[in-house]
Specification:
Distance between the termini: 70 Å
Number of strands: 34
CATH topology of the largest domain: Rossmann fold
Number of domains: 5
Bound molecules: guanosine-5'-diphosphate, magnesium ion
Radius of gyration: 32 Å
CATH superfamily of the largest domain: P-loop containing nucleotide triphosphate hydrolases
Helix content: 25-40%
Oligomer: single chain
Shape: elongated
CATH architecture of the largest domain: 3-Layer(aba) Sandwich
Structural class: alpha+beta
Strand order of the largest sheet: 15-14-20-11-12-19-16-17
Strand content: 25-35%
Length: 681
Amino acid sequence: MAAQKPQDLRNIILLGHGGAGKTTLAEALLHAGGVVNKMGSIDEGTTLMDFDAMEKENQYSIDPAMATISRAGKDINLLDAPGYPDFIGGAVAAIGGADVAVFVVNAAAGIEVNTRRLLKLAESLNLPKAVVVNRIQAENVQFPELMAAIRDTFGSAAKPMNLPAEGGTAVIDCFVNTEGDSALGEAADAQNELMESVIEADEALMEAYLGGEKVSAEQLAAAFSTAMVSGTVVPVLFTDAKAEVGTAELLDAVANYFPSPAQVPGRTIRAGEKEDAPVVDVACTGDKPFIGLAFRVTVDPFVGKLSWVRVMQGTVTPDTTYSIGDARKSSKVSHLFKVQGKDSVEIKQAVAGDIIALAKVEEVVSGAVLHSEGKEMYAEAVPAPTPMFTLAIAPKKRGDEQKLAEAMTRISEEDPTFITTRDAQTQETVISGIGDLHIRIVLAKMKNRFHMEVDTRPPKIPYRETVTVKAEGHHRHKKQTGGAGQFGEVYLRIEPLERGEGFVFEEDIFGGAIPQQFIPAIEKGVRDVLGEGAIAGYPLSDVKVIVYDGKHHPVDSKEVAFRTAGKYAFLDAIAKAKPVLLEPIVNIEVTVPSEYMGDITGDLNGRRGRIMGMDVLPGGTMQVIKAQAPLSEVMTYNSQLRAMTAGQGSYDMEFSHYEPVPGNVQQQIADAAAKAKHESE
Ligand SMILES: Nc1nc2c(ncn2[C@@H]2O[C@H](COP(=O)(O)OP(=O)(O)O)[C@@H](O)[C@H]2O)c(=O)[nH]1
Ligand SMILES: [Mg+2]
């Protein structure tokens, strides 16, 4: 039986670096809540959340998972996100269903790189936050330093709600039930701190408190969740998930003190696709028309499509009808489910604030809004990092192109960080992901789930060719084969255009030297060169061609003759116009701990990069380096940066402009192209 009131629901997502213990913590919470009889473990492949065969084999989460725990009259929907940077797509998808981001920090490792990235993500959605310090039984944990690092990262609102006892064998409450723990001066201090920030968030409570009145537990609980929503309190709790220490306490804290969906503003829904479309008034109550957000879509070739839907308004039953996005077509819910690890359990009703799953709804895509109001509705997208790691792929079996395209579409539907494109210029199918591990897992999914095996290779760089000075070209095409001959002669001028101007063809022929009817044939011949280029087989652009003279023959002049003459006259002119190869230049922004600055700038210089600026990030430990570099030099930057910074660096990259490649590089590329051409002939 699902919760009947939004106030009785909690939606939390476990976020944090891989290996911090999120999935194990989820398992311990499921055990504490009686969902599983025996606590499963990552090492034995028996957890409820990491149920996928690939997850069991690798012993880390790849996809987000979900389960519900009932505690103290509340239904807690628990989302477990993958933690390794390569699988951030799963976290981006799952966070769309959450009201509170719970950051799990490994006590032995401190704040790790992906925790910072996920924190940015949670903050961009204005989610209330909490911190769980896990593995408190690990040896040599420096708790004071750890708390300082947490405050550094999460701000001064981060205050302990409990504290680890000596050796991590228990946790000591320092918020409500501190009496009896008077020996712990530290706990008492912590209590004062947290209590004060909670009370500060509620003016009426503040007055009562200052007036010496006793504050009741209920008043405190209400103020606590309000303070979490406003961000003035980020509770810190301690656990050892494996030893099941602090896990029941965490469950109680979530049930009793964390905000319900009715208190959290939730995602913005707009009445149109445009960014400035009016915002829809969404009320988290059961007695209004249904609005739901399909925040994650999973696709299984056997089970089909399953959409995780956050009910944002109204009540869903099998009879609920809804339309998607533009409200053109209406469907009936028919079956709704609660997801419990790998299982879907059918239920009869779900209220605003709850998370359900709908099966086999083909039209639903991630981020779609389902609604019964008959208006258009769209949700603002969760910002996902741009995938930078690219590979060109082709099916191993000829004729499987269509099947491959379908498999890729399905995978990109469930993963916002997996993108496939067809490069019109290089004619390649290119896939992009966060890193090599991400792409490896995607290819494994393709094989396991869609029986699709592919060949991969680094994608081609989309070079271009152009000319740099004005020049003239001439060609006379004359062929005498038996009776009818071919004749056409063309004189033309070419001029470089500004970058991005493309191609301009003009004619300025004196006195009808070439009859008008042959001009299109000349243009065709010239355009033949644009596609193939003149240096290394890349498209030529940013050039103006002016045909100004020529000769024709009353009998032998044919279109084909002028097409040939136009082509070779153009090639003749290009050869004299100092042609160059242009390469794509990208803007790259690298974020690294300060100690790596020297290495990074040195490396970028070695990659023909230009450093454009540097900035210290707030907090002082991280620096951003802005640079421009040729795409060809940073194609595999992902793995290089990872190696240089022990995985602590990150970067963003975007296309900037085209620029001529240096002469020696041009020669290498031209030689390679000539060789490839020779081999294919
Ligand atoms: N000793 C100890 N080991 C833990 C704890 N939590 C997780 N682990 C182990 O750490 C590894 C990674 O845990 P996992 O739950 O997969 O981390 P996740 O990547 O954050 O989901 C596994 O081998 C777990 O058994 C803990 O609290 N104590
Ligand atoms: Mg995990």
